[in-house]
Amino acid sequence: MEFGLSSEQRMLQDSVARYLADACPMQHVRDTAAGPQVVSATLKAGLAGLGVPGILIPAEYGGMGLGLLEAALVAEALGHRVAPAHFTGAHVMAPLAIMSGGSAGQQQTWLPRLAKGEATAAVAVTESILSRDGAGVRAKNGRLEGAALFVLDAADAEVIVVADETGRQHLVAADAVGVELIALPTIDRTRSVGELRLSGAAAEPLPGSGPETTRRIVDAGRVMLAADTLGAGAAMIEQAVAYAGQRRQFGRPIGSFQAVKHMCAEMAAALEPSRSLVWYAAHAFDHMPDEAPLMACHAKSHLSEVGRLVARTSTEVHGGMGFTDLAGLHYWFKRIGLDRQLLGGPETVRNEAARLQGWIAA
After folding, report:
1. What is the pTM of this model?
2. How confident is the model at residue 2 (pLDDT cuts 50, 70, 90)?
3. Residues whose CB falls within 8 Å of the CB of residue 158, separated by 6 or more in sequence, listed in order
4. For the domain 7-116, what is the CATH superfamily, name and number?
5. 156: which DSSP letter?
6. Measured between alpha carbons, how far is 167 from 162 in angstroms, rounded to an integer?
């Protein structure tokens, strides 16, 4: 049995990669990161034209109706270009939440708009994994109180999917009374993260939601972050190899020195096998629900560690240049760092994997 991509999946992968290569050069990343808007309006419109916002949304609502493996291919391409664009929260987790837990009316209201890129949805579920002191959302009489940190894809959000302390999900209008969505600065200037403060905000529960549906969208988000790290790591290896072939010391390229060869080989040997892990985790999400939670944990935790190795080693290959903005490596370095912590750091995720396998008590 060969586990590989179909011709349609490769076509999707190539079309997104080609678009990003043209529309998202390094200078565009720099300009967006230095500006007031974390998300590029150019990329938002271009990705909408490719159908990316509706990648998981069924065709009856105007989407592409594809699976999580196809979404992982897009996430990998976005990570490879450090694209300042919405994806994990807005185009994967939020549509899944509405598709799995929303009423027919909620689906008809939101899914077509999300599929076309006419509306943006943020996702606030971090507290269902691990919460800091003072964070957490409580629901009572159709209203929400509390705070949620690390809200994914917060910039320009029209609606927010919020998980309360019981695991049930709610839709909250970003401009409603009692809602304050604040930009949360992180080391990564290529993605939008926010802090949500709720003071008696009106909420619309997703009637079919609960702890299991919240867990499912978290699983999907973790696979997307792993795929993003995979793409970012591949880009850093490519840059390290190219630099090693150009930079000369003692009259020859530094790539001819055995120590540098070993560094590049170590990165490639660590990252390339991770690709099949990410693909399998995405495939399991759609086709093997019993395996999906554990595989999402494995993919997220393993890529977090491999990504850190690649980010550090690639920077070391560049020497002092690796720390400069001229090289630009820090964009990928910081993106991998944020991927590592969103939706649970590797220690938290490995702890969940141990519980899922019965190694420690729930």
Report:
1. 0.96
2. low
3. 119, 120, 121, 173, 174, 175
4. Acyl-CoA dehydrogenase/oxidase, N-terminal domain (1.10.540.10)
5. T
6. 9
